[in-house]
Predict the structure.
Amino acid sequence: MISEEQFQKEISLIIENAIREDVGDGDHSSLACIPSNAIGKAKLLVKDECILAGVEFARQTFNYLDKDLKMEILINDGQEVNFGDLAFYVEGRSQSILKAERLVLNAMQRMSAIATKTNYFVSLLEGTKTKILDTRKTTPGIRALEKWAVTIGGGENHRFALYDMVMLKDNHIDFAGGIAQAINKTKSYLEKLDKELKIIVEARNLLEVEEILRSEGVFRILLDNFTLEDTIKAVKLIGNTCLTESSGGINENTIRKYAECGVDYISSGALTHSVFNKDLSLKAI
């Protein structure tokens, strides 16, 4: 994953762009009927059962729009919440609160959904050594938020983007002329640029696992769409040579079985691309 500094830059860009998109030349609904010096207070009301996520993002959003807005946080990111819980209060200029309202809610509703699903998957892996990973199957423009939500839910982040890790998948291998060629070209490329990036290589079958193992410098082997039987064989074959990751159609009904095969990681795009937003509301008081 990228550095904490770079990650925070991504969050700042999301806030800046979202406000540009939503506010434009002004929130005319508020400007028309609420005095600029009016002070108000609102509460974040939970109307669902979930793992709460996005409280810190809300704080950063309020701070970006108006540094005089004050939050009283009652429930932090990562905590379980129920219908009727109050997550926080925010107080300050009413116009500022209203400008931030939709961005805060949109982000927190989606982040809470992702954190909740991730937390559920983590619970299914309890007692095994396997950790759950997200993927790049994220919503364009808000990847940092969605990956943040995964960590709040107890999961781990895969690579952030194309630039912070090398992942040689089936198309890379086929275009490069084979596994050995793809790995060797990659190592030469990284050496030439003096870049230290971890290399993950996808295997489609046990023969490809054997071929990958003949090359040095591979950080992790991705066992894509392997059966349970072949996953067990692959894990035994790989041993301690490098880390292992299973992916491809693994769901809540099969995730435990794949973990019991002994893989180090299971990656799931469903953590971010197949969730339903949780119900949260920002209400004036």
User: Anything to note?
Assistant: Residues 18 and 103 are 7 Å apart (CA to CA).
